[in-house]
Amino acid sequence: MIIINKKKLIAISSLLLIAIFAFTFQKADSNKTVQTVTLPVSNKVVVLDAGHRKAR
What we know:
mainly alpha, 43% helix, elongated
């Protein structure tokens, strides 16, 4: 019979969370950035609207 007390349960869950975070950071680090083409925007107007205005 296996008995897991509160102290062991906290230790096991902490190690599991650390392993998950380490895997997540390793996975995110493997993505490489790729240079993209930039288009000229001279003589153009760019308008950004947040869209938070309430309708009347």
